[in-house]
């Protein structure tokens, strides 16, 4: 960690000069925190870091006890970070600074309440500040400008439409998201994005926010997860601040709520969200929701709310197929230039990391980072060695029996032909394709595969694999057949 050496130097010089001034001490702590935060971002990934580590503010430091306070905006976030990251944060600070012995995580004592958030047009003017979350309030993701408008700053700058790679599995959702962000009134509202984890629904939410702000610079945007909505709702309820909560929530032009499935079973919050949707729709405003399941599959949600969520357009994002996974990897390679990643490595990653796009990109980043830090060349062997955890989690256990059954159905031949001695072309070619797929999709050796095909010699299997590989290069029909079979077997 870069903070270790720099802190050591500061400690040595401070002993010569005596105790550092308070301002210098604060600067030193801030510098160490910048190093620690950067390291955690690499370890945890952008999403976890942005949601939980980035909002942390440095508090006071007691030199007598060696205790450093770290503040978070809400009790929920403070408890969450303490439970999951306290040990890691404590260790990082002890390494970075010999003076820090204990780390204490708490709610910021001076954070403003909902009623203090300048809801009216005559509120004191304030210039927008990048990444300012209004002193940590997680609901109002913006700042008040000279005209009293709230503009969103809670959006990830990297998650734009330009950075979103499209394919047949996500083009409907992409086009619908673009339409929602255009200047003209959309044909449908709300837009409901349905996708499994890591398939791009959160990316599209952020992209809508960025694009809408470009078309409407004074727009007021509300972006948060349903979980954060729940936390702020309960807090406002307990503090008797529901009037302010409702007024602020309904003052936005664009409502973006992620992971709506987490609002399941919260009757009072569901009712408030229902009334908010009705109020915003009545004023012609835009709403976008995202979840890992369709509205009808949300258990414990009131029927009236289900009807509101599904009354616009439900756009489904299917898992990325291999063509889209290849395109995503190739698009990411531009930022690593001039580093060379062989085509067989790209193909290997695209074929084997198929659960979600987030894992796919994470695997590529991990592989390249390891190669750069160790000075090794990126290779297929390095990928297999360093990505074992990701690969094992993604690898579907496809059997040779399943391959034979699928190939026979595809070519309309009897299953017994996989083991027969017949040499007719209509039988031999499907059998060779099945042998090729058995080698590509299973860990079985050539002799093991041969035994599953009527006790054939391993040299016969090798010949079949090489033949199909060659035919795929020269014959587009054969390549199309194999691709279709791969999609069926990997789905």
TrEMBL record:
Identify the GO cellular component terms for this protein.
cytoplasm; plasma membrane
Q: Which InterPro entries match?
A: AAA+_ATPase (IPR003593), Chromosome_initiator_DnaA (IPR001957), Chromosome_initiator_DnaA-like (IPR020591), Chromosome_initiator_DnaA_CS (IPR018312), DnaA_C (IPR013159), DnaA_dom (IPR013317), DnaA_N_dom (IPR024633), DnaA_N_sf (IPR038454)
Q: Which UniProt keywords apply?
A: ATP-binding, Cytoplasm, DNA replication, DNA-binding, Lipid-binding, Nucleotide-binding
What functional role does this protein have?
Plays an essential role in the initiation and regulation of chromosomal replication. ATP-DnaA binds to the origin of replication (oriC) to initiate formation of the DNA replication initiation complex once per cell cycle. Binds the DnaA box (a 9 base pair repeat at the origin) and separates the double-stranded (ds)DNA. Forms a right-handed helical filament on oriC DNA; dsDNA binds to the exterior of the filament while single-stranded (ss)DNA is stabiized in the filament's interior.
Query: Subunit comment for this entry?
Result: Oligomerizes as a right-handed, spiral filament on DNA at oriC.
Task: Family membership, please give it.
Answer: Belongs to the DnaA family.
Q: Could you identify this protein by its name?
A: Chromosomal replication initiator protein DnaA
Q: Which organism is it from?
A: Altericroceibacterium endophyticum
